[in-house]
Amino acid sequence: MTATDTAPTGSTPPAATETESVLRRIATGSVLLSFLSVVMALVVGAVLIAVTDPEVRTAAGYFFSRPTDTLSAIWDAVFGAYSSLFQGSVYNFRRPRFVDGIRPLTETLTFATPLIAAGLGVALAFRVGMFNIGGRGQMLIAAASAGYVGFTYDLPPVVHLIAAIVAGVVGGALWGGIAGLLRARTGAHEVIVTIMLNYVAFYLISYLLRTPGALQAPGSNNPKTPAMADTAVLPSLFGSRYSLHWGFVLVVVVTAAVWWLMERSAVGYRFRVVGENAAAARVAGIRVERTYVWAMVLSGALVGLAGVAQVLGTVTTGFTADIDAGIGFDAITVALLGRSRPWGVFAAGILFGAFKAGGFAMQAAESIPVDIVLVVQSVIVLFIAAPPLVRVIFRLPDSRTKAAAR
To answer: What is the tens place of the pLDDT at every residue in 65-113?
Structure first.
């Protein structure tokens, strides 16, 4: 009989506890480390831009005879790429009118809307000591639920939109709650469960999209849903000129609500206590297993809101099984960069929305591969996951070392 066999139901194996401890330190580090991680990632991105630029490589061929040509080519490549990134995500100075120049910022906020919602869900689970890797599955179930209500029923405008939003949020909550329930009842680790549920959700939705009378558009052989009814679409925030919709306002309200829940409510206090030390919380009378269930339900609901924003706000002409667009996994990075704090996640979501919006402009204007942006995002995670490396590079003191000295 192994140690695992003798462990009580709902207990966590030592290896899982060690993993949770490491990830908890990553998720709750300082804001300064997050900022410096972004700076270092941009530096690494600049190096990659310079290395892959053909003019830089040409000038490097005669570097020792005319080194200034190489330095000038490097500056032109990096400055051109990052200025295009800025103009594609914040403000385009090449446009003569303000209403046209500000459009990139609205695109950034549109991309950021589902990232913030999903990031809040992942961050909430982090704060409880759980790791929701099932964003893709929860988004797909939420998108299918909201989309089905959106294109099937004929309801009054406001009622229809609210019903579709509620259906999507409930779908995501139920899908996330499965992992919480299994963790509470059987001790099954939510990382494995949520990863497997991603596949279940993907193939389930793929099947429904190919099934007439389910999600597939009538009279079509393509695995795609019908368009959403006009009464179930999130209205445009600034008119048809911009893609930004009221989903962003909803996400701002939800961010404030999650902040209040986690920082000011009794439920949030229990969540934080369980996340810090589940054993101590159990001794203090907190029902840890129930907390796990509710944490994953709320986490799934928030991630589900990202799926709702996609189908009712961004892609209203019908969706496929790729509607999640990788947001479920990007949300993990957003939550880590935001240090699992609601407003930190909000800021991180906008940053990653800027990367997405500006990456395409950078590629179009400077012929820079859009994959460079993905590398920058990945390097951000790398530096966030290695705080000692950032401290060494910037010669920052270790707070734990200072505390031990005292």
So the answer is: 888 999 999 999 899 888 988 998 999 888 888 888 899 999 999 999 9
SS3 301: helix
Torsion of CA 19, 186, 278, 301, to 10 degrees: 90
CA distance 170 to 164: 10
Q: Which residues are CB-neighbours of 275 under 8 A, at least 6 positions away?
A: 24, 126, 127, 128, 129
For residue 94, the SS3 value is coil
- Output the six-digit token pair for 269: 């206090």
pLDDT tens digits, 211-244: 988 899 988 888 999 999 999 999 999 888 889 9
Residue 150: Cβ-neighbour burial (10 angstroms; 0-12, 13-18, 19+):
buried
Q: How many CB atoms lie within 10 A of CB 14?
A: 11
Q: What is the pTM of this model?
A: 0.87
Which residues have C-beta within 8 Å of that of residue 249, sequence separation ≥ 6?
A: 237
Enumerate residues 6+ apart whose C-beta is below 8 A from 395: none
